[in-house]
Design goal:
The structure holds two protein chains of two kinds. Chain A is 40% helix and 12% strand. Chain A is α/β, with parallel strands linked by helices. In chain A, α1 runs parallel beside α7. The longest helix of chain B has 29 residues. Classes of the chains: A alpha/beta, B alpha/beta.
Chain lengths: 367, 252
């Protein structure tokens, strides 16, 4: 029986899982994923980290606990050197060391710099050699995994839900849709650009299934990966300001590439509470939306409180705002609070909405 | 370029003199603070050390030349050393480290050094601004808590640099234990991602080595009483350990 490699379904899993899957499979290992987190499991599992930190990091140890017994070795990605002079958030970079320091059996951990953008370090090759992998085999596996990742990036253009794109690329069964969720969106509602870190947009536990909520409101959704799946590979310079956070460029590139083309009614920024990168990035996106693109903007911050009624209220209020800013839709159709079903006889004017034309977007937004 | 920035009458000599004066003042004030911290826990009359320190700091502020700064520092040190102290008092030594702004700014840490001094604990700071200036030239090795030595000491827990002061703050705990300090207080601002990593690794360091570490999260709502309670309990614990150690030595 081949060695089972445990992978945590959180953080860097979301952009890189197809790459990791192909890499380990090519080396002859079997991969075991931690289960999709939910509120009940999260409350039940141990939370060893102290201090105020974002939900993806907080849930990471629970993922580790869940996958530890099912795998021979648990893979923890080292993420601090994805690109030259571009850095990942320090908590992501420190996570493998925090888990290693707290884990009861640190010898069963595999810490690797495993990304599609650079080959592994000599130290990583030494770790893989202990599992019986030669340098040549690792090189071949890396090349094959890069090809698989490129194929995934191309296919992700057509699926706004990152978790489903990953499931399709790695041959897993996709997560079941939420009860009552229409699929796909009929396209009569507003078109939203949903921005945020891939591990927030991809993890339905972290984002409280915001895409299901939007689908029930009949919204069309565009995400960074459907606009520019290759941007994670590039260092991004916007308006002369170099962003040196690895995943921050993804959202900004999606904004600068998609919004000038028009057709987007509003921008929804999803972040984790206490995320330092998003605390810089969200105001930057908000400012660009207000000054350059004249598009309504809404910032949603998620934490471990599982009550979602406040989220529904905010999203509904935002959609109401978009409703006021859009030209009147066809009579008899409403996307607010309708659960995707048209409300017969309710005209937009009945909720106090008035259509107001938007100014045309500026041609050179941030330069 | 130089005249555009500093005005038509600006001279290089004045600029260099200003830099020298600023650096001298910074070093002088920090040396004086260090000397004050070493005496706070032993003062006989409450507030006498602080009064001597404030008089010396005011004199340093009024200096307009590097030579005057040197003279004012000598005089301030002489005044500080003249304050009567009770050197037989039992004290504990506590290292303060963490996020640089929280450690250095008395407003941010709610005068933690003075609080510790009032509890007969000698506060030692790992982070000084002069060390940040000296680090690129390798001169931090001369200080008691060298950043390079700290990063080296933390390699067992953090083999690669993670940014900020994460590695060095973990290393300072190990250095302080080797030096015989009684405990460490780690300060972090609310929501700081770097110090979150350091805080969690420090918990493991505390478990592995038995070195007492107190982590405090500070923000604009930090209540003085809450801080007092936690610091007093921690210092009391350090005193208990110190007394037990002394009693063990005597019985041996």
């Amino acid at each position: 029986m081949s060695t089972r490699i445990g992978i945590l379904r959180t953080l860097m899993f979301y952009p890189f899982q197809p790459f990791w899957e192909a890499f380990f499979r090519h080396l002859g290992f079997t991969t075991v994923l931690s289960p999709q987190m939910d509120a009940e499991t999260f409350d039940r599992e141990r939370r060893l980290f102290v201090g105020d930190i974002c939900l993806p990091i907080e849930s990471a140890f629970s993922h580790f606990d869940l996958v530890r017994d099912q795998a021979d070795v648990v893979f923890l990605p080292k993420a601090n050197r994805i690109h030259r002079d571009v850095y990942v958030c320090p908590t992501c970079a420190g996570l493998p060391y925090m888990i290693r320091a707290m884990a009861p059996d640190p010898d069963r951990l595999l810490l690797l710099h495993l990304t599609p953008f650079r080959f592994l370090d000599p130290e990583d090759l030494g770790s893989l050699r202990r599992l019986g992998c030669s340098r040549r085999a690792v090189r071949d596996a890396h090349a094959a995994a890069v090809t698989a990742y490129q194929a995934f990036a191309d296919s992700a253009r057509h699926e706004p839900r990152l978790e489903r794109a990953i499931a399709a690329a790695t041959g897993q069964s996709p997560t079941a849709p939420t009860p009552g969720e229409p699929a796909p969106a009929s396209g009569t509602g507003p078109h939203l650009l949903v921005l945020g870190m891939p591990y927030v947009l991809g993890d339905r536990f972290v984002n409280h299934d915001i895409f299901g909520l939007l689908a029930r409101r009949d919204c069309r959704v565009t995400t960074p990966f459907t606009v520019a799946p290759d941007v994670i590979n590039k260092e991004l310079v916007v308006g002369g300001y170099s962003l040196y956070w690895t995943l921050a460029g993804t959202s900004l590139a999606a904004m600068t590439r998609r919004l000038p083309a028009g057709g987007i009614d509003g921008v929804l920024y999803c972040s984790s509470f206490a995320c330092g990168v998003d605390s810089v990035l969200a105001p930057l996106v908000q400012s660009a939306c207000r000054r350059c693109y004249h598009i309504p903007f809404c910032h949603l911050a998620f934490d471990e409180h599982s009550e979602v009624s406040h989220l529904e209220v905010r999203v509904d209020a935002f959609l109401e705002c978009l409703h006021a800013a859009r030209p009147p839709p066809q009579p008899g159709l409403s996307y607010v609070g309708g659960g995707g079903q048209p409300e017969a006889g309710v005209a937009p004017e009945s909720v106090g909405a008035t259509a107001c034309p938007r100014p045309a977007p500026t041609k050179e937004p941030l330069s | 370029m130089f005249r555009t920035t500093y005005g038509r009458d600006a001279r290089w000599r004045d600029l260099l003199r200003g830099i020298a004066l600023g650096f001298m003042r910074l070093v002088a004030v920090e040396k004086l603070e260090e000397e004050r911290n070493a005496r706070l826990a032993y003062e006989i009359e409450r507030g006498s050390v602080m009064a001597a320190f404030e008089a010396g700091r005011d004199r340093l502020r009024a200096c307009t030349s590097p030579f005057a700064v040197w003279q004012a520092l000598r005089r301030a040190r002489r005044d500080l050393r003249a304050v009567p102290l009770d050197r037989r008092r039992l004290t504990v030594r506590v290292l303060i480290t963490g996020e640089a702004f929280c450690v250095m700014d008395p407003f941010a840490n709610v005068n933690l050094e003075l609080r510790l001094g009032a509890l007969s604990a000698v506060p030692c700071r790992a982070l000084w601004q002069r060390n940040f200036l000296a680090y690129p030239f390798g001169l931090d090795r001369l200080s008691r808590y060298s950043r390079r030595a700290a990063v080296r000491a933390a390699r067992h827990y953090l083999p690669e640099p993670l940014g900020g002061d994460i590695n060095s703050n973990v290393g300072y705990a190990l250095l302080a234990r080797r030096r015989g300090d009684d405990g460490m207080i780690h300060l972090k601002p609310f929501g700081c991602m770097m110090e979150f990593v350091a805080e969690n690794i420090l918990r493991v360091v505390e478990r592995d080595t038995g070195f007492p570490i107190l982590s405090l999260t500070l923000d604009d709502l930090t209540g003085e009483e809450r801080l007092n309670v936690r610091v007093e309990a921690f210092v009391e614990n350090l005193f208990r350990r110190r007394r037990e150690r002394l009693a063990g030595r005597r019985s041996a």
